[in-house]
Amino acid sequence: MIKYNSMLKQMIALTALMVSSIAFAQDREYVIVVHGGAGAMAGLEEDPVKSAQYYAALDSALMIGDKVLSAGGEGPEAVMAVINYFEGNPLFNAGIGATCTAEGTFELDASIMEGKDLSAGAVKTKSPHVMLSGAGAEEFAKEQGLEMVEDNMYFATPKTMEWIEKLKQESKKNGTVGCVVLDKQGNLTAGTSTGGMFKKRWGRIGDSPVIGAGTYADNNSCAVSCTGHGEYFIRHAVAFDVCARYKYLKESVEKAADYIIHTELNTNAGNGGLIAVDKLGNIAMPYNSGGMFRGFLYKEKGSPEIKKGCGIGKKIVVVGEK
After folding, report:
1. How far apart are CA 86 and CA 95, in angstroms?
2. Cα separation of 83 and 80, whole Å?
3. Are 178 and 225 in contact (CB under 8 A)?
4. Is 176 a catalytic residue?
5. pLDDT, tens digit, 9 for 90 and up, residues 194-234
6. Which among 99, 101, 160, 176 is annotated as catalytic?
7. Is residue 51 within 8 Å of residue 317, measured between CB atoms?
8. What's the sign of the alpha-carbon dihedral 260, 264, 266, 272?
9. How far apart are CA 81 and CA 99, in angstroms?
10. Is the pLDDT of residue 70 over 80?
């Protein structure tokens, strides 16, 4: 009887463990988190006119992603749709409206990564390489039949033209846009795009296109997109480090992200933030700067409603549910 009771207890404990594991299965049908850059914008949320523009833009980005995901679309499709929207919105430092280099031109960086197979890069489905730049990237784009921009000033807006005329003045538009997704299939995807750092020189490349620094996704852990002073995010391999802490230290995505942003980085050496979603649908949006344009949207399994919110400074504004 002693041996039987011992075995029975082990079976009961194992059953409890299995039930516990099931309880922690993905409860959210899909999740999307976006950011539009971090920096000195905390006071912006007190400006009702300007903040309304950003809240509306963040909400539009979330709803674009929701349209894809709710219809059963996969993460990469949703991420690219959201980032394309940000790149076409001059409020953000990506695509049209990107900040300029010291020479008064525009140099853009971007990347995407899928967690299901760790495939990564802006050209991941058409090339064996992860990262392309300069003339080679342009040649590849032409070979793929992508739409080309002959005039670099295509990316200029009246505001960026003012910066070009006043290069000796500092600009606050050092930012990035990004999107992370957990889709209905349970796959994670992350994408990041930026116009880079104001007055950058010598072909500088930041963290946004660097897999593991500004972008990372792994179905066994998280999807992460970063924004901030890229050199520090590269040195600390921030996006990968969040996933590693989650995977190997068994930290929650919120704890892992908070540690990286507030402890490993800081306001003076690594100013910025990140967005992340883990394989269970939990999210994190920490930042150590004055603010970060950010938003989230998710749908619980079995519920017809979606829940969403957006933020600039400390407070999160619920911009509506459906």
Report:
1. 8
2. 5
3. yes
4. yes
5. 766 555 555 556 556 789 988 999 999 999 999 887 678 88
6. 176
7. no
8. negative
9. 22
10. yes
